[in-house]
Amino acid sequence: MPELPETETIARALDELVRDSVITAVAIPRPNVLREHSADEFGRRLREVAITRCWRRAKCIVLDLSTGDRLVVTPRFTGGLFVARRDAAPEPPPSNPDYTCLALTLSDGRTLRYRDVRRLGTVALMDPARFAAWTAGIGPEPLDPDLTAPLFSGFIRVSRRAIKTVLMDQRRLAGVGNIYANESLWAARIAPTRAAARVTRAEAATLLAELQRLLAASIAVGGTTFRDYRDPLGNRGGFAAQLQVYGREGEPCPRCGVPLSGHHKLEGRATVWCRGCQR
Ligand SMILES: [Zn+2]
């Protein structure tokens, strides 16, 4: 599932590929991907509208439109946005089976497609008031310079839930999912099941610094492709080779050599950690 670095990679690539493009036609082969509008109204509000900017909020890709509306795409597990380069040869017809849920024809003849094999992702069209309410319900961005260590420490240490669960709670902190929660807790030597309230201020500062370092390093190589994630041109991310614990249960800890432990006790997600050096 794309987390912050993967979504950031998608948004940056998409901004370069489709900024200032005008949508000339809208096809919605699988209308159940839409949230908040019927297919008819969705199509009517997108036709002859320009995409003015693509960016990321949490694990969502946001397309700003010239009407003031925004398109918010949540890829979840298998969703992806794909479009050819501006100078590319005409696109071949879609492969069979074609998992396109939404296809936006652009004025230069290219098509921006949202494909989703398992169809768990969503596409929502939001007016400015709806968007403001949506974004207000999500926590701060971990790479925002305004998120200082004391602020971070303050809002995680009020919870008695497991620190890993708190890190992944989008209402508290945006964009962190299972991969970067596991990795940052290992880097900061904190056991994933420890109550967030029992993380010290110094440990919280280390955790934020490690999380920021990992997210930035992953963005620099296009994110982590474990299974399905691809960028808008179909490329895989390069960060999987740098993962220290995620997907490595049973292997020796890279820091102390104790075999890495794994369980699914926290929100049913795979937790991998080291009993030897995480407390
Ligand atoms: Zn260890």
Q: Brief overview, please?
A:
This protein is of the alpha+beta class.
Notes on the protein architecture:
The mean pLDDT is 94. The protein is α+β, with helices and mostly antiparallel strands. It has helices at 4-18, 39-46, 128-136, 149-156, 163-167, 178-187, 201-220, and strands at residues 22-27, 34-35, 49-57, 60-65, 70-74, 79-82, 100-106, 111-116, 122-126, 261-263, 271-273. The chain has two domains: 4-136, MutM-like, N-terminal (N-terminal domain of MutM-like DNA repair proteins, Alpha-Beta Barrel); 149-273, Helicase, Ruva Protein, domain 3 (Orthogonal Bundle). Helices cover 27% and strands 20% of the residues. A hairpin with a 4-residue loop joins strand 7 (100-106) and strand 8 (111-116). The longest helix is centred in the C-terminal third of the chain and has 20 residues, at 201-220. The structure holds zinc ion. Residues 253, 255-256, 258, 274, 276-277 line the site of zinc ion. Zinc ion is lined by residues 253, 255-256, 258, 274, 276-277.
